[in-house]
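Sequence design from tokenized structure. All designs in this work follow the same two-part layout: the structure record, then the generated sequence. An example of the structure record is given first.
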């Protein structure tokens, strides 16, 4: 299990040796640019469909040629924790998408292939743009919250007017349409970013980091949907590891010629993707009577169910973490 490897392996050996220890130097198959979207390997089996953004999708280093040190998403590494003889796992998450843009773009083609007995695990929020409809991310912004309010806005890519709904409204549409096919929805809150609050713990929410995790939780409760609080599960693991170990779960900061530092705070490297995948499995195991547990592989056996009833850990750092200049917007 990664939790037993991270503190000693990462700090002492670096990412390449950690990848060797985890047996992750050979990338898993993934449908990237120029290849057909992945489909179930055995149509007779139930399928777990993954939908979301690049923090779920990234595979094969996202084309960066940095190997384990590049960007990787948990939807790639989680495949090892399911038994392919029992279930298909199809990762259809797409980088750059939000709850809104995925619903109007990729979702109809995926839904057409969802069948009774399937599962759809969703994670959105990183690209919903905090309700800001201008700028580069305006075309994918949803309204904040979970209500039924709408707003007519011009799509910043097409220039055409579009009726935009809340983040929660889009999640509810996915849930209703999945259930209409006889399949089972599972909502995950978004993975946390590598941002620290003044007390030295991973930041959960502030005025510039809207509360998509809470809104995902609200929808799961109102729609009575299985819910994995991935945001809090991963944040607690980061808090337990401490600043230096968490830094090793993300691509290394890049220093420009002028001395400015760009620090990737959203997309993990391969080791971080493994930790996040394990956290999803821990969350699924914690669900009451979850049918997905029956599909887990032997590799998932030693992952303990997540327990968020316990008190969160204290920070492992002496006070605030020095700020680093922001990374590019999430993809």
């Amino acid at each position: 299990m990664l939790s037993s490897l991270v503190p000693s392996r990462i700090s002492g050996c670096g990412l390449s040796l950690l990848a060797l220890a985890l047996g992750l130097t050979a990338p898993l198959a993934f449908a990237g640019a120029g290849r057909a979207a992945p489909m179930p390997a055995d149509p007779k089996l139930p399928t777990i469909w993954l939908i979301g953004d690049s923090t779920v999708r990234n595979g094969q280093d996202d084309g960066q040629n940095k190997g384990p040190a590049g960007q990787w998403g948990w939807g790639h590494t989680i495949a090892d924790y399911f038994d392919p003889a029992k279930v298909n796992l199809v990762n259809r998450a797409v980088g750059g998408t939000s709850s809104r843009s995925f619903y109007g773009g990729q979702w109809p083609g995926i839904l057409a292939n969802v069948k009774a007995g399937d599962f759809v695990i969703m994670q959105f929020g990183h690209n919903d743009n905090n309700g800001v409809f201008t700028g580069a991310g305006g075309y994918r912004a949803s309204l904040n919250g979970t209500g039924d309010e709408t707003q007519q806005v011009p799509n910043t890519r097409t220039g055409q007017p579009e009726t935009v709904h809340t983040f929660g409204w889009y999640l509810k549409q996915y849930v209703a349409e999945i259930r209409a096919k006889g399949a089972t929805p599972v909502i995950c809150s978004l993975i946390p970013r590598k941002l620290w609050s003044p007390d030295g713990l991973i930041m959960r929410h502030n005025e510039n980091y809207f509360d998509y995790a809470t809104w995902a939780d609200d929808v799961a409760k109102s729609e009575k949907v299985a819910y994995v609080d991935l945001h809090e599960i991963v944040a607690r693991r980061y808090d337990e590891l401490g600043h230096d170990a968490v830094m090793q779960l993300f691509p290394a900061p890049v220093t420009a010629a002028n001395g400015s530092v760009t620090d990737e705070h959203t997309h993990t490297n391969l080791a971080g993707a493994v930790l996040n995948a394990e956290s999803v499995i821990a969350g699924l195991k914690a669900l009451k009577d979850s049918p997905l547990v029956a599909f887990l592989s032997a590799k998932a056996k030693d992952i303990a169910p997540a327990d968020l009833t316990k008190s969160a850990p204290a920070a492992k750092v002496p006070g605030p973490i020095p700020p680093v200049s922001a990374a590019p917007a999430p993809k």
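The domain at 2-300 is CATH 3.40.50.1110 (Rossmann fold). We note this feature because it recurs in several other targets discussed in the main text.
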